[in-house]
Specification:
Layout lengths: L2 E6 L2 H15 L4 E6 L3 H14 L6 E5 L14 H14 L5 E5 L13 H8 L15 H8 L14 H7 L2 H7 L1 H13 L1
Parallel strand pairs: 1-2, 1-3, 3-4
Length: 190
């Protein structure tokens, strides 16, 4: 049985990615959960996570959002983030298979690729975006889309795994380069 160590910033990201993995690969891969509780912690905890994985697990998937700089409001440098993550693996002399998935800003941007998911969240309102990576604060915009009047929002990030089960994977891959790379990686594991 294949084992995959899945390292994410938070529990909802983990569950979302787990659903996508199982949609593509079926229930056969055992997924080892490693949740860092934030992007800063992910980079800090990564060497410990790598060391703690059982020897028979040679596949790592790391999902780390490409956040915005709180001062300049511009996206952080993707190449720099990838270099930092790669360096953590080099420190541990890791020789297995790994994929570093860096959704632009937040993985919630992926949901904006699918008209059916957006229609579901907005109860018929809203439109999918042809370039979801260009949406600033995609999670916040999903919350806004799900809010009617002064009522509480219907969407929260706790819904992400359920939305991942509905997500049109092919369309998302066409519109979100990081998602396409992730899907391509998973398809090579089949």
């Amino acid at each position: 049985m294949t084992k995959i160590a899945l390292i994410t910033e938070g529990f909802t990201d983990h569950e979302t990615i787990r659903v996508i993995i199982h949609r593509l690969l079926g229930k056969r891969p055992e997924i080892i959960r490693m949740v860092a509780k934030g992007s800063g912690n992910l980079k800090k905890e990564l060497p410990r996570f790598i060391s703690s994985v059982p020897k028979d697990c040679g596949i790592f998937i790391i999902v780390h959002d490409l956040d915005r700089n709180p001062i300049s409001k511009s996206l952080n440098n993707e190449d720099e983030l990838r270099r930092i993550i790669e360096s953590k693996f080099a420190q541990k002399s890791f020789t297995g298979t790994k994929h570093i998935c860096i959704p632009i800003e937040e993985l919630e941007a992926w949901f904006w690729s699918d008209p059916e998911v957006i229609k579901h969240i907005g109860r018929g309102k809203g439109k999918a975006h042809p370039n979801p990576d260009q949406i600033e604060n995609p999670k916040k915009k999903l919350i806004t889309l799900s809010t009617e009047g002064n009522l509480k929002p219907r969407y929260s990030e706790n819904d992400n795994a359920r939305l991942a089960a509905k997500l049109n994977l092919e369309l998302c891959a066409k519109r979100c380069p990081a998602f396409k790379e992730f899907l391509d990686f998973l398809q090579k594991l089949e």
